[in-house]
From TrEMBL:
Signal peptide: none
Name of the protein described by the UniProt record: Succinate-semialdehyde dehydrogenase (NADP(+))
Keyword match Oxidoreductase: yes
Catalytic residues (positions): E256
Gene3D superfamilies, sorted: Aldehyde Dehydrogenase, Chain A, domain 1 (3.40.605.10), Aldehyde Dehydrogenase, Chain A, domain 2 (3.40.309.10)
Family from the record: Belongs to the aldehyde dehydrogenase family.
BP terms from Gene Ontology: gamma-aminobutyric acid catabolic process
Protein keywords: Oxidoreductase
Source organism of this protein record: Leucothrix arctica
GO cellular component, one term: cytosol
One Pfam family it belongs to: Aldedh
Length: 486
C-alpha cells in the first residue's frame, strides 16, 4: 500500500471502551488487497466473549452520552466530520487498498460518508417533541423522543465508509451508543474512521468496533436484551437470519437488503442521457451495489440504438488496480464473487443471450478482474433475471407497453431501487407511482444523498437511512400524561 500522510490511521486492532485491543485468543485474519492479492495487515479475530464485553461498555457509556446536551453531541460530530474530510486522501487510500474500487471513487465515498456525520450532527439538535391538546380535564399531554439505547451496526464491504457513518451518525446524534461489526474483507476503513472519532472527542464506549467470528458475534448482538437496535446492510438471506434471531427480545431492526433494480427506457427517452445514466448507475463500484440496475428494460423502438451506444461506452471503461491513473473499474471483491458473476454470464449465454461488448470476459486470472459486459436477448429463464448480479453485467430485455414494463419490473421479491427514462409526464407519473420500490430515479443514474431517505420495500428491508427520517429509527416515543391539575 502507498504511504499514508498519517500512518497512525492504519490500525490493526479493535477499538473497545476507548482502547485498541488484540483478540484474547491471539487469533487474527489477513486483510487482502483484491487487486494484487497482497496481505495489507492482519486484524483480530474476536469471539462472542469479547462482543459481550463491548456491549457492557456500550451500556455503561450510554448513561452519560444520552445525558449530554444535543448541542454538545453535535459539536463532537462536527469535529469528526472535519477530521474525516481533512484526512480524505488517506482514508480513500485505505479504502481502495482493501476494497479495490478506484482511488477517485473511494475519495468520493469518503466525502459521501462524511456528509452523514455532518447532516446528523445538525439533525440531532432538532429532535422535537409535541404537546397534545388535552381532551381530559385537568391533564397535560406531552410527547418526548428519547434515544433507544445501545445499538449495533453490521456493515458490508462494498461501501465500508458510508455504510458506517449512515448508521453511526444518527445513532450518536440521537444519544445512542453504537458497536460496529464491519465486513471481514474491509475492517481497516472502520478502524480509521473510529480513530478519527476518538480524536474528535467521542467518549470511550460510545463508538466501538469489533472484528472476528461473524456468526458468533452476530448471535450475541441479536440475542442481547441490552442491544435495543440493530442496523444491518447486506444480503436478504442474512437479514432474515438476523430478524429471526432478534425476535425473542423484540429488537428494533433497520435492514437494508438486496435489490433487483429495473432500469426502464421508453421510446421517447433521450437515448444518450439514458446511456450515460446507465453507465453511472450500473458500473459504479464495478456493479457491486444493492441499487445497481440488474435488469435493463428497453422499449422496442429504441432498443437497438440503446444497446449499440451502451456497449460502445462500456467498452471504453478501463479496468485495473484502483490506484492506477485513469482506472474506471477495479477488481471484484474476491474470487468467490468472480466465480458467481462469471457463472451468471455463462448461464445467460447458454440460454441465448448475446454479448454486445467486444472484450473477453476475464482480463486477469490472477486476481478477480472481469470485463464489463452488455448482454442482449435476455429473458426471464436466465438466472441473472432473478438473482442479484453484483457485478459489471448489464442484461437488456425488450418490452412493448408501459403496463408490461411495470409488470415485469415488479415481478420480484425485491423492492429497493428502480430507474426510468422518459420525456413524458404521463409516463413518469404512471410508472413512478406503479413501481413497487422504495426509491425511484427518473432521468438520472445517481440519486444517493444524505438529505433523502434510502431504503426499500418487500424483501429489500425495513426502515430508512439518511434524511430527516433516518434519525427516527434511533428514537423511542414517550407519551407523558400529567393529571391532577385544577
Amino acid at each position: 500500500m502507498k504511504t499514508l500522510t498519517q500512518p497512525a490511521l492504519l490500525k490493526d486492532k479493535c477499538y473497545i471502551n476507548g482502547e485498541w485491543h488484540s483478540a484474547a485468543s491471539g487469533k487474527t485474519e489477513d486483510i487482502m488487497n483484491p487487486a494484487t492479492g497482497e496481505v495489507i495487515t492482519a486484524v483480530p479475530f474476536m469471539d462472542d466473549t469479547e462482543a459481550l464485553k463491548a456491549i457492557e461498555h456500550a451500556a455503561a457509556a450510554q448513561i452519560g452520552w444520552r445525558s449530554e446536551l444535543a448541542k454538545t453531541r453535535s459539536a463532537i460530530l462536527r469535529r469528526w466530520f472535519e477530521l474525516v474530510m481533512a484526512n480524505q486522501d488517506d482514508l480513500a487510500l485505505i479504502l481502495s487498498s482493501e476494497q479495490g474500487k478506484p482511488f477517485g471513487e473511494a475519495k468520493g465515498e469518503i466525502a459521501y460518508a462524511a456528509s452523514f456525520i455532518e447532516w446528523f450532527g445538525e439533525e440531532g439538535k432538532r429532535i422535537y417533541g409535541d404537546i397534545i391538546p388535552e381532551n381530559i380535564p385537568g391533564t397535560r399531554m406531552t410527547v418526548r423522543k428519547e434515544p433507544i439505547g445501545v445499538t449495533v451496526a453490521i456493515t458490508p464491504w462494498n461501501f465500508p465508509a458510508a455504510m458506517i457513518t449512515r448508521k453511526a451518525g444518527p445513532a450518536l446524534a440521537a444519544g445512542c451508543t453504537m458497536i460496529i461489526k464491519p465486513a471481514p474483507q474491509t475492517p481497516l476503513t472502520a478502524f480509521a474512521l473510529v480513530a478519527l472519532a476518538e480524536e474528535a472527542g467521542v467518549p470511550a464506549g460510545v463508538l466501538q468496533v469489533i472484528t472476528g467470528d461473524s456468526i458468533a458475534i452476530g448471535e450475541v448482538f441479536c440475542e442481547s436484551k441490552t442491544v435495543r437496535k440493530l442496523s444491518f446492510t447486506g444480503s436478504t438471506g442474512v437479514g432474515k437470519i438476523l430478524m429471526r434471531q432478534s425476535a425473542d427480545n423484540i429488537k428494533k431492526l433497520s435492514l437494508e437488503l438486496g435489490g433487483n433494480a429495473p432500469f426502464i427506457v421508453f421510446d421517447d427517452a433521450n437515448v444518450n442521457a439514458a446511456v450515460a445514466g446507465a453507465v453511472v448507475a450500473k458500473f459504479r463500484n464495478n456493479g457491486q451495489t444493492c441499487v445497481c440496475p440488474n435488469r435493463f428494460y428497453v422499449q422496442s423502438g429504441i432498443h437497438d440504438e440503446f444497446v449499440e451506444k451502451l456497449a460502445a461506452e462500456v467498452d471504453k471503461l478501463k479496468i485495473g488496480n484502483g490506484m492506477e491513473e485513469g482506472v474506471d473499474l477495479g477488481p471484484l471483491i474476491d474470487e468467490k464473487a468472480h466465480e458467481s458473476v462469471l457463472k451468471l454470464i455463462l448461464d445467460a449465454k447458454e440460454k441465448g443471450a448475446v454479448q454486445a461488448t467486444k472484450r473477453d470476459l476475464v482480463t486477469n486470472k490472477r486476481a478477480p478482474f472481469i470485463s464489463p459486459v452488455v448482454l442482449t436477448n435476455a429473458d426471464d429463464s436466465m438466472q441473472l433475471c432473478s438473482k442479484e448480479i453484483f457485478g459489471p453485467v448489464a442484461p437488456v430485455y425488450k418490452f412493448e407497453t408501459i403496463d408490461e414494463a411495470i409488470a415485469v419490473s415488479n415481478d420480484t421479491d425485491a423492492g429497493l431501487a428502480a430507474y426510468l427514462y422518459t420525456q413524458s409526464i404521463n409516463t413518469y407519473t404512471k410508472v413512478s407511482e406503479g413501481l413497487e420500490y422504495g426509491i425511484v430515479a427518473v432521468n438520472t443514474g445517481a440519486f444517493s444523498t444524505e438529505v433523502a431517505p434510502f431504503g426499500g420495500v418487500k424483501e429489500s428491508g425495513l426502515g430508512r437511512e439518511g434524511s430527516m427520517y433516518g434519525i427516527e429509527d434511533y428514537l423511542e416515543i414517550k407519551y407523558v400524561c400529567l393529571g391532577g391539575l385544577s
